[in-house]
């Protein structure tokens, strides 16, 4: 990676990129930089973040990782708050990393989930969504669903189920949503560039190839929701005779990751329960689970990009984490490449927008108090 010849200031950085895991997500994020910039000290004395600086296309990007072994929405919110205090020109953020996919509702537990070959949809059954390991999920709202849902925010009512009362979380700026639309249209015509971007990453950093390469479809197993990973058994041992415990899915034509736009579920606890996963997937239309986004959306307007490394069930391992982190980072780069750098500078910085909100809120509150 080439070193930038110019000295940049804190005010030159307009995009904030946050990740949670140093050896996978942060490594992939840094590898996506076109040019690496010299380190700048934190502008705020109370800022304890360490930053990586560089450029992607026409954007200067500041990258921060959550402190080691301190994942979760509170840690993410703290990192974002300090980033904006030191880099006051940031217009929007990216939360990029890994997550657990929700591909299977699990309603027909005793049936083989397998569709006819003449179906227009990739889904094999109404109870199966074709989300696989290595695919990328992008937070995006619709008329009936939110981009990010804090599904563990609510209340427990006596003799009733937990009641979700989480309010609506902020959306990213329109310029980001517009870029998503442009990218979606481009992908219909030409397909995405994730595989090409990963190939360039491996060419530039050959040592990353063995760890971050595609693990292979043989290591992608979707268990039926009622099959729990017990004791010291391996995932292969839990497949059962003739793979009876696995959901049957069609072979894909290639190994390129697929992109999925929709609702991401965020909570303090890691989702490792397939039955609960399916319940929330149906209730909130969640297609991915993670633990940081809910802490960011209201104070750090961002789009959330997650590479799928597991199925949010008990059958977890770390084989897919590096590749999933890389596919998410590659999508983030492709997104930035369609956003005009000059247009980003025309929108208010996050901190300025936040200050404007509080000024308006204070005026309204004062006015209401006088009436």
From TrEMBL:
Q: Which InterPro entries match?
A: NLR-like, Nucleoside_phosphorylase_sf
Specify where the region named Disordered lies, as residue ranges.
109-128
Single Gene Ontology BP annotation: nucleoside metabolic process
What highest taxon heads this organism's lineage?
Eukaryota
Listed GO MF terms: catalytic activity
| Bias type Acidic residues, positions | 112-128
Q: Can you name this protein?
A: Nucleoside phosphorylase domain-containing protein
Biological source species: Orbilia blumenaviensis
């Amino acid at each position: 990676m080439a070193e930038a010849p110019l000295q940049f200031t804190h005010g030159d950085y307009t995009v904030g990129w946050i990740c949670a895991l140093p050896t996978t997500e942060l490594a992939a994020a840094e590898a996506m930089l076109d040019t690496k910039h010299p380190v700048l000290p934190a502008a705020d004395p109370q800022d304890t973040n360490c930053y990586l600086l560089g450029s992607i296309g026409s954007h200067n990007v500041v990258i921060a990782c959550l402190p080691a072994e301190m994942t979760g929405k509170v840690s993410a919110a703290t990192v974002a708050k300090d980033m904006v205090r030191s880099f006051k020109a940031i217009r929007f953020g990216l939360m990029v990393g890994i997550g657990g996919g929700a591909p299977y509702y699990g309603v027909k537990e005793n049936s083989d989930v397998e569709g006819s070959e003449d179906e227009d949809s990739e889904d094999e059954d109404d109870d199966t969504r074709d989300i696989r390991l290595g695919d990328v999920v992008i937070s995006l709202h619709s008329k009936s669903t939110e981009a990010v849902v804090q599904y563990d925010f609510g209340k427990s009512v006596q003799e009733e189920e937990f009641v979700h009362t989480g309010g609506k979380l902020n959306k990213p700026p329109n310029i980001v949503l517009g870029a998503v639309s442009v990218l979606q249209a481009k992908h219909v015509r030409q397909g995405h560039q994730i595989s090409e971007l990963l190939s360039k990453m491996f060419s530039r950093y050959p040592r990353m190839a063995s760890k971050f390469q595609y693990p292979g479809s043989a290591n992608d197993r979707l268990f039926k929701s009622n099959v729990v990973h017990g004791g010291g058994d391996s995932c292969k041992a839990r497949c059962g005779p003739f793979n009876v415990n696995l959901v049957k899915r069609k072979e894909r034509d290639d190994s390129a990751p697929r992109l999925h736009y929709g609702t991401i579920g965020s909570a303090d606890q890691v989702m490792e329960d397939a039955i609960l996963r399916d319940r929330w997937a149906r209730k909130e239309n969640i297609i991915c689970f993670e633990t940081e986004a809910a802490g960011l959306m209201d104070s750090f307007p961002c789009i959330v990009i997650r590479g799928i490394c597991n199925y949010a069930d008990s059958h977890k391992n770390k084989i897919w984490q590096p590749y999933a982190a890389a596919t998410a980072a590659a999508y983030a780069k492709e997104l930035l490449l369609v956003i005009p750098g000059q247009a980003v500078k025309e929108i208010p910085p996050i901190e300025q927008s936040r200050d404007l909100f509080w000024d308006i809120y204070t005026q309204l509150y004062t006015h209401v108090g006088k009436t």
